[in-house]
Amino acid sequence: NTEKLSSARFAEATDAFVEVFTASVDFDKRMAAQDIQGSIAHAKMLAKTGILTDDECAAIEQGLTQIAGEIERGEFSWSIKQEDVHMNIEARLTDLIGIAGKKLHTGRSRNDQVATDIRLYLRSEIGQIENQLNCLQTAILDLAEPNAGTIMPGFTHLQVAQPITFGHHLMAWFEMLQRDRERFRDCLKRINVMPLGAAALAGTGYPIDRALTAELLGFSRPSANSLDSVSDRDFAIEFTAAASLLMMHLSRFSEELILWSSAQFNFIEIPDAFCTGSSIMPQKKNPDVPELVRGKSGRVTGHLVSLLMLMKSQPLAYNKDNQEDKEPLFDTVDTVINCLRAYADMVPHIRAKKDNMYQSAKQGFATATDLADYLVRRGMAFRDAHEAVGLAVRLGLTTGRDLSELTLAELRQFSPLIDADVFESLTLEGSVASRQHIGGTAPETVREAIRTARQAMAAG
Length: 460
Ligand code: ARG
Known about the structure:
Layout: H1 16-22, H2 25-28, H3 32-48, H4 54-72, H5 85-97, H6 99-103, H7 110-144, E1 151-156, E2 159-165, H8 166-191, E3 193-194, H9 210-217, E4 221-222, H10 226-231, H11 234-260, E5 268-269, H12 288-311, H13 326-346, E6 351-352, H14 354-363, H15 368-377, H16 382-399, H17 408-412, H18 422-426, H19 428-433, H20 443-458
Parallel strand pairs: 3-4
Antiparallel strand pairs: 1-2, 5-6
Helix pairs in contact: 3-4, 3-7, 3-9, 4-5, 7-8, 7-13, 7-20, 8-11, 8-20, 11-12, 11-13, 12-13, 15-16
This protein binds arginine (ARG).
Protein name: Argininosuccinate lyase
Subcellular location: Cytoplasm
Enzyme class: lyase
């Protein structure tokens, strides 16, 4: 079928370039399965309400099922003459079953059809994303567990701040991903509303049963306003916003992995399988996977901005502009799934270089706050303690020693409140072990956080 879409109204054929320019089938054919699923539900509803006969509905369902098979096997011939996924499938259906195929579009428009397809598509992709998130979160927990007591420096301003454990740091990543998961789930509530029945924009005069179609497709309810149904892409923007946040998180993990695997930090080993060499420098092992993921976060945020710009000046209801929603959305889905997969595969093989982490924590006066807290416990006001410890740090700096390497006599110069038991507070182990409150870095507390996290994940 090479005839122009709604050709009767036109005196001229479409310009050859315009035909190519306006066609979307090359990319929207990705939603073929959802398009067919939506059409079958629509046909069933039309039969149930007496708008089509049961025989017509059966022929439509059988024809669409055959088309689904042709598409899956790669036998379907897509044509840009048919513009998009919807018209390609409808034209093929009519080739296969004749007049009943021409009745499928009764009480429907591509405007409510495409909005339905995208929602069905995103609903299923969110399921995939959740699975990948699960794998990555599990990998993080599995790495955190044996490292619940692995001491490393914690940073602020990228300067050594206070000792923490590697397990605690990993659990921070876990929390970030947990929020991402919640955001996708929340977004799913608004995705899972059915536009079908809105038709072009004003609804339809046929006695349709939207609740039935919604039920058949597993939507929680039909949308409430026909204009809004065909013009709304908020759900796609929300999805892309959730994806942008997730990618921003992955980018921050990447940044840390890249720094930590450098010779200057030397905290971790990223497995060879996730790195590549240099074409010129024989010694190089580059952290390509984290770098690429960091780069791809920009791409997804770009898609978010594209979608916002796409929608911002459109009058109600449907406009052809909306066809531009698909490529950013599809690329967002692919990028997120691929990046999560790469991370879920890589994280279990990251090796912590515990000695190096420990030595680094020892070198940065990481327990200075603990010394101040010691003085406070002995009755000094915190601000005075801060001052006294500052002087002790200065002595350490000028003599090239950590606070724990100063003698008791030297320490007592800064306050007579200091006794021999001070050295317990100056050890890295003592520092982390003392932080036992909810959310703290004490190894026992981190193990507890891991247990709680596993329970939350098992509960879904
Ligand atoms: N390919 C179109 C899209 O992606 C389908 C809807 C077309 N509707 C229309 N009135 N031209 O948005």
